[in-house]
Amino acid sequence: MADNTWASAITSVVPNQIRVRGYRIDELMGRVSFGEAVYLILRGELPGAAVGRLMEAMIVASIDHGVTPPSTLAVRNAATTGAPLNACIAAGALAVNRHHGGAVEDCMRLLARGAERVAAGETAASAAGALVAAEKAAARRLPGFGHRVHTYDPRSHRLLALAKEAGAAGPHVAVAEAIVAALARGGKALPLNVDGAIAAVLADLGFAPELANGFFILARTAGWMAHVAEELSREKPMRRIDQQSCAYDGPPPRDVA
Amino acid sequence: MADNTWASAITSVVPNQIRVRGYRIDELMGRVSFGEAVYLILRGELPGAAVGRLMEAMIVASIDHGVTPPSTLAVRNAATTGAPLNACIAAGALAVNRHHGGAVEDCMRLLARGAERVAAGETAASAAGALVAAEKAAARRLPGFGHRVHTYDPRSHRLLALAKEAGAAGPHVAVAEAIVAALARGGKALPLNVDGAIAAVLADLGFAPELANGFFILARTAGWMAHVAEELSREKPMRRIDQQSCAYDGPPPRDVA
Amino acid sequence: MADNTWASAITSVVPNQIRVRGYRIDELMGRVSFGEAVYLILRGELPGAAVGRLMEAMIVASIDHGVTPPSTLAVRNAATTGAPLNACIAAGALAVNRHHGGAVEDCMRLLARGAERVAAGETAASAAGALVAAEKAAARRLPGFGHRVHTYDPRSHRLLALAKEAGAAGPHVAVAEAIVAALARGGKALPLNVDGAIAAVLADLGFAPELANGFFILARTAGWMAHVAEELSREKPMRRIDQQSCAYDGPPPRDVA
Amino acid sequence: MADNTWASAITSVVPNQIRVRGYRIDELMGRVSFGEAVYLILRGELPGAAVGRLMEAMIVASIDHGVTPPSTLAVRNAATTGAPLNACIAAGALAVNRHHGGAVEDCMRLLARGAERVAAGETAASAAGALVAAEKAAARRLPGFGHRVHTYDPRSHRLLALAKEAGAAGPHVAVAEAIVAALARGGKALPLNVDGAIAAVLADLGFAPELANGFFILARTAGWMAHVAEELSREKPMRRIDQQSCAYDGPPPRDVA
Fold first, then answer.
1. What is the pTM of this model?
2. For residue B87, which residues of chain D lie inside 8 Å, CB to CB?
3. Strands (E), chain C
4. Does A80 touch chain D (CB under 8 A)?
5. Cβ of residue A85 closer than 8 Å to a chain C Cβ
6. What is the ipTM of this complex?
7. Please, what is the angle between helix B70-80 and helix C85-94, to 10°?
8. What is the pLDDT of residues D49-102, one digit of tens each?
9. Three-state DSSP state, D173
10. Cα torsion for D148, D152, D153, D156, to the nearest 10°?
11. Phi/psi of residue D218, each to 5°?
């Protein structure tokens, strides 16, 4: 019936040929990085090489954060009951919500309000001051700022530096940094956390906030795979997983050559 | 209680410092590719640059295959009911099983049987012949060979070429190619499909078969994000999704510059 | 640490004794119906027998609706890829959202607005008229009214009749019926669908709207189990599931003795 | 295309009429219990009233077991991150696997081996002795026997008593009881746990082992709903959920009137 017809602009598949956004997938393989391919499939065009590296850095930043995040606990709890790998990953994805991973989306919306002010002629500092005041007045926490473990989030600093190197830092990054300064001035110093830094970069790259937690899930899937493999190789089934009783016993600190 | 203590060798998190397998995550960002980071977190050591590129190519190969795979239909069906993005991705992951994506794992086990024969002194051709005969005698299909759409899978050829360039092609790749030759000699030509090529490469890189469908889910998450975004921007809620009524209307064929 | 302590009022488990809301579970077994037990665990008290029967009828009403609902398609699509039963059920649950099954929650909130008006002295007819007008002015559809297949939903009529028999029909049921009358008077006749009838009954029983889609999932799990069993026993793996090409070939119409 | 046509024998839906296995669903509502409806949809025929009550008792037995089961922890962990109810339930279903809830399926297969021996002329005691010896020789644990908390599982005794009252106890129940006796004679007393009792009853009722964990998920969904509601009403988001720090503060012990 005619009204069931629809169209997709993502991937064309005909016998012996697969094209993603027009490019042969076998030509993309080995020529573009995964970060570039992710940008391509979501935006329709290949990014420049610098933005590709930025995408990769953003995904690397989210690859793991140890055993305590609720999503990783969900993955380990599923694994200990005997769930297959894909079900463990699904359980992890289901634990990425407003309160965990979701700050990226909320922070993108917050920074967008600041970027609008900047576009209307305000300075980033002024826009940031207005946002901080508004959220304080509404008794809301600033998503993307502060961390339960880190007072300085090394991932954020590195990511913003890479964004600037790539020429991809725009008003959202500027507002994010201005909010940190405004908070410090106000006597309530909070670091930009990795969610906030990713939010600023994604927003300046033009991604929609609705996609934000997908990047986290994509990156963290690699971490979850490592946790499932470790759970199965080192632990007994049906154990009580106590996140506070876990010690790190991996390689000692070392530097990338 | 003492018996609740356990250990993890993946990531250490202390205030203001996160180390994955011993490396500072902010140092990894921008210095290693996502493919290298995935290898690192799963194997404990950084790979060489060539293997890193091979990992990336393998993930790019799996990024999307249009609207017909059952997992993508599961994602679109969830999206049309109003599911949030993470639930759509979870629904996709739950549709990656033995019959869809699972051929990688099964093929890894098949090729391992062949590689054992090669290690014991047989040629790849002889090992392949024995495997083909054994599976035929048992009336089993060869996982990783044949495709419902493609008689020549361009992804497989590209991936094996990259594996050889990287010096990473070993007995599993040799046996996979020998199986294709044996099938052709036997009058039943079947291509090595992308699952089979990924299986050969993962096995020669030393990955465990149990992780196989995780790589597929990780890569395809990017594709699923694109399908969810497209579903929400172009279609009405609660539509009947008929995979055979979908036309491609994206960019025309083009080449990577 | 002290701040990790918490409490639960649902079930106490000590060696050889399990009590749900204070009652021994082995004493509940065989003495109360599942509908009564569901009411007990959610509300903390056993309902009267009539409300127990009403709960059971509500759950029976949701047990299945054939092969076309998106959640059932999600279940079948997972099953055809080889997913285990629990993953098929999870895929089904993930497809129960705002646009599918979610009308119960939305309708409960709508009827609550009507019931507030009734509590403030309006008649149900007046409250219903106000709601219909308000939703029309806002160009919103009325959740719980209308059905893509049925112009008369037999489940709704039966459920409201049972609610009245049980003495459990209150202002939410009255407003729901008044909305049907108001729509008919306005020339736009729409039946109360099963979601709307369940919404009215749940609301008059005092359940929170947030729990609404849980009842649907609970009931439909039985239907999904039947669909998985049928898929595995009658169909080949990895088939294309076309909901419009399915014929019914079960028992002919018959009456409950 | 002709080869896309298929059939389902479960539910027929035509405008204004829904029939489950031939019966009008509105006629089933209020006339049959949920247990009878579950039996009907899975087996194709309504059971007698006694079997219906047994089905209900079996489902009531599984409705909850406090906060420590891994599936309930998965549900609570999802809820604390802000997941919607259906995603919490899906996360719970994904944690029901071989090591948790899966003993029902494994025990059904074990008892089937015993029932075959009984059908071939052995006594239940002899069949049980052979099974215990075989599993001991293979160093396998007996699924359905023993419990980490209970040395006497009150649910099992009640369920078998109800099965006998219903005239539904057959060779699987007999073998299950004979295994308990054989273990006690062998000096290794283990109770029949609720998984084992459900396994025996389901097997004597003629259900397929593949469906076993579906009954658990169906029943436990009600418990999971209660845990989500309690988590949201009593706890803060993103808390660390320590199962050993939870006290019961619900109603004191009481009896069903």
1. 0.94
2. 84, 86-87, 90
3. 6-8, 11-14, 17-20, 23-24, 246-248
4. yes
5. no
6. 0.96
7. 40
8. 999 999 999 999 999 999 999 999 999 999 999 999 999 999 999 999 988 888
9. helix
10. 130
11. -55, -50
